[in-house]
TrEMBL record:
GO CC, alphabetical: plasma membrane
Biological classification of the source: Bacteria, Pseudomonadati, Thermodesulfobacteriota, Desulfobacteria, Desulfobacterales
Main location group: membrane
Keyword Endoplasmic reticulum: no
GO MF annotation: an example: transmembrane transporter activity
Species whose genome carries this gene: Desulfosarcina widdelii
Protein's name according to its UniProt entry: Amino acid transporter
Compartments (UniProt record): Cell membrane
Amino acid sequence: MDQVEKKIGYWPVVAIGIGGMVGGGIFAVLGLSVQMTHGAAPLAFLAAGLVAMATAYAYTRLSVTFPGQGGTVVFLDQAFGAGLFTGTANVLLWISYIVMLSLYAYAFGSYGAAMFPEGFRSLGKHILISVAVLGVTGLNFLNVETIGRAETWIVAAKIGILLFFTGVGAWTIDVSRIAAGSWPSATSILAGAMIIFLAYEGFELIANTAADVRDPNRTLPRAYYSAVGFVILLYVLVAAVTVGNLPVDRIVAAKDYALAEAAKPFLGSFGYLLITVAALLSTLSAINATLYGAARLSYTIAKDGELPEILERKLWNRPVEGLLITSGATLLVANCFDLSSISTMGSTGFLLIFAAVNAANVHLAEKTGSRRWISIAGVLLCLGALYSLLHYTWQHSPSHIWVLAAMLFLAFAVEGAYRLWRRGNLLLEHFR
């Protein structure tokens, strides 16, 4: 009876998926999306959401078949074995989480610094970025449970504020600003959709709950599709209200804190402050949840033999080395790269990972009872979206391509070097 009572139902699982997606992403990338897509920003969020929905099918079938707390790592291992490809993909997933953390920290610094005097904003942003990352790292050592209990209330608050923002702002939309005449080229729209794809990646957190879900065969599919569908609708509405109430040049000028600026025309200074508070709470809670999850991910990958054993060590039930490495890397990325670079890295990483998960479901279709063609379509959508993002990036910001190449090489090099080191140690042990 006690075991049954511990199982969670449909609504808590949906809340986990929505909370994972509506973290700090929408606050960080909205202005960047509008800069690239202008009046087509709602369409861009819809396009990115459809790619996420296609991938949700693979996650649904894999979660039902392989319930546990490993999520993506387990799915790739089940499909392709614990080889160099899987190890590289899992390390890339860890790096992508570090990039997400950097995005949240960057957004926290940007929204907070917007309240400072003009001359202090640049320095203030970097100070706030560092304080947020170091502060949450310290809290993970002290009393993460207290913050964990507050997560539910923070998620409810930010969803409520965004719904209030869209509900009030919808009445004052200037339709001409989102009409087809205000759209750029199809290439720009598609690239703009994919650079903000990382705003949807959080639905994969549902996979980590699969072992604790009541009636998973029925609950998990409904939860995945409901969470992704709700967030698509929310993002499209937020984008429409933003572009419909504020000229594109003003959104671009306030790119790093665009959502707060967009609340001014119809909510005044109160709206600006409300969205700023929501952004600060949202990004801080997202840093906490993602930092904890990324440190746990490094622990899981190390347990699978794909990262050094030192990352398996725990102190006070926390994966200490993984936590510190993740925090240090986040400080470096968030303080050294701009919003566009961070978003491009994050979206590239997750598009590759989601393509691999779709491919895993194609490979395991007989075990998962899947329609193979849906996940084949998911692979093609992810790779096509990735191509459009890389093509646009090469044309407009070619230096970012080298950053992406370095990120992918790092994932391969870390995994390859560790495997060579481990093989060398095994040979030494053999000849002793």
